[in-house]
């Protein structure tokens, strides 16, 4: 598909995002797994990765070939190099490796606490490292210029959506949580105007309700701020600003610490901007 293989993980992610609609069903499945589980790709074998991704091992090789690589191992080295560059210390690299190998035995509550604290600390630092300052500025400008801000997020994302609504109201902003009471997502989305803003939070498997509200907003020309977990989230391509948040994952339990931290940053950042304007 590509004549020249991307030389960095960032370039590969960009290529995957651009080519995603053109990929076959199985290759799209691989693409989504690669973007969502970079640590597993860096350390896993073809057999283990293909099993977890739900595809045949040969599909991983076909995917690598489609993006210009001679084989899966060549592409895998990009993921390994990225982890090495992101790790701030030798101890951090050892910890990542240990987590990929897995721990034997049952965790006590205090051990679980330690796992969650360590994983979330790394995820929060990663959030600070990868979030462009211009995206934060753009999102805060959108919120500052909006007459009203509407927020939507269902299931796991509802926690983040409800916090943003709470925080914005405490800084005297008009904020409306689209909660779909009575199944009225469409009706609540109908109150959006082009002078408003919409914040949509959605994580895999990307709720249809959130997508419908976002689509209605875009059709009205409403600025859309997205918080999601993948560059190929169905909301990403429609967003005025898109924040991709990689949450901590411990024993298959995903955190919300990074998403809530970002939500708090946007809310308090808006408060600072408004206060400065009034000074």
Structural class: alpha/beta
Shape: globular
Query: Which strands sit side by side, in order, in the main sheet?
Result: 2-1-3-4-5
For the residues shown, what is the average pLDDT?
86
Number of strands: 7
Distinct helical segment count: 13
**Mind summarizing the main beta sheet?**
5 strands, parallel
**Could you spell the SSE succession in H and E letters?**
HHHHHHHHHEHEHEHEEEEH
Name of the CATH superfamily of the largest domain? Glucose-6-phosphate isomerase like protein, domain 1
Could you characterize the architecture of this molecule?
The model has no long low-confidence stretch (mean pLDDT 86). This protein is α/β, with parallel strands linked by helices and 279 residues long. The longest helix has 22 residues, at 109-130. The protein is globular and about 55 Å long. The protein has helices at 9-19, 25-36, 38-43, 46-53, 57-66, 72-86, 90-101, 109-130, 133-145, 158-170, 185-189, 208-219, 257-278, and strands at residues 149-152, 175-178, 197-202, 224-228, 241-244, 249-250, 253-254. A 5-stranded parallel beta sheet has the order 2-1-3-4-5, with helices on both faces. The chain is 58% helix and 10% strand. It has 13 helices and 7 strands. It folds into 2 domains: 9-84, Arc Repressor Mutant, subunit A, CATH 1.10.10; 133-278, Glucose-6-phosphate isomerase like protein, domain 1 (Rossmann fold), CATH 3.40.50.
């Amino acid at each position: 598909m590509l004549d020249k293989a991307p030389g960095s993980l960032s370039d590969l992610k960009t290529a995957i995002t651009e080519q995603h609609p053109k990929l076959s069903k199985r290759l799209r499945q691989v693409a989504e797994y690669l973007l969502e589980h970079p640590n597993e790709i860096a350390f896993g074998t073809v057999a283990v990765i293909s099993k977890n991704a739900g595809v045949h091992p040969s599909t991983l090789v076909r995917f690598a070939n489609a993006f210009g690589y001679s084989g899966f191992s060549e592409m895998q080295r990009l993921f390994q190099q990225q982890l090495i560059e992101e790790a701030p210390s030798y101890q951090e690299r050892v910890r990542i490796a240990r987590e990929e190998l897995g721990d034997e035995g049952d965790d006590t509550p205090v051990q679980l606490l330690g796992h969650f604290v360590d994983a979330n600390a790394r995820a929060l630092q990663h959030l600070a490292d990868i979030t462009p300052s211009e995206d934060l500025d753009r999102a805060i400008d959108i919120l500052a210029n909006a007459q009203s801000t509407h927020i939507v997020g269902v299931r796991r994302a509802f926690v983040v959506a409800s916090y943003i609504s709470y925080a914005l109201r405490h800084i005297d902003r008009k904020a409306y949580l689209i909660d779909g009471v009575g199944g009225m997502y469409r009706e609540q989305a109908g109150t959006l105007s082009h002078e408003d803003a919409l914040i949509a939070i959605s994580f895999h498997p990307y709720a249809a309700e959130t997508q419908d509200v976002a689509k209605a907003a875009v059709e009205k020309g409403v600025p859309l701020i997205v918080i999601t977990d993948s560059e190929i989230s169905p909301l990403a391509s429609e967003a005025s600003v898109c924040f991709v948040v990689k949450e901590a994952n411990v024993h298959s339990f995903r955190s919300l610490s990074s998403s809530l931290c970002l939500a708090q940053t946007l809310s308090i950042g808006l408060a600072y901007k408004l206060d400065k304007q009034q000074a």
